[in-house]
Amino acid sequence: MSSIIRLLLIATFTTGVMVVIPPSLAFADDPAGAEHDRPAAGQTVGVAGLAKPATEIISGVVASVDESKDTIKIQRSPEITEELKVQDGLLFSAVRYGDPVQVTVENINGARTITGLMKR
User: Fold this and answer.
1) Superfamily of domain covering 55-119
2) Structural element, H or E, at residue 46
3) Domain boundaries, the chain
4) Can you tell me the distance from the alpha carbon of 54 to that of 42, in angstroms, rounded to the nearest whole number?
5) 4-31 residue pLDDT tens
6) Residue 93 burial by Cβ neighbours in a 10 Å radius (0-12, 13-18, 19+)
7) What sign for the dihedral angle of Cα 20, 21, 23, 24?
8) Strand pairing category for 43-45 and 51-53
9) Residues 19, 11: Cα–Cα separation, whole Å
10) pTM above 0.85, yes or no
11) By the 8 A CB rule, do 19 and 11 touch?
């Protein structure tokens, strides 16, 4: 039994705290080979250590709807208008120019994408 595992077992029994080390970290012979286990830039890590997209809630008014490009522009303030991809094409029938909305945005494949929408 390796000395690291032995120390962890002793620490677990003496303190009552269980320490879990993922196998990719505990037994990685090649640190460069474990690179694929790390989350990509701009992503957060969930409880289980799995990468998940960062989520943002945006409020504003629908400035335009472009179904041919799968985008909706949201005017957040008089100076800020943001064009966002739409994850689900059915969303286009739910909104039109001038609707006040609150959208959930995630970074999916490098594009800021609307994953949820609620009219206000």
Assistant:
1) Copper binding periplasmic protein CusF (2.40.50.320)
2) none
3) 3-38, 55-119
4) 7
5) 555 555 555 544 445 455 555 444 454 5
6) exposed
7) positive
8) antiparallel
9) 8
10) no
11) yes
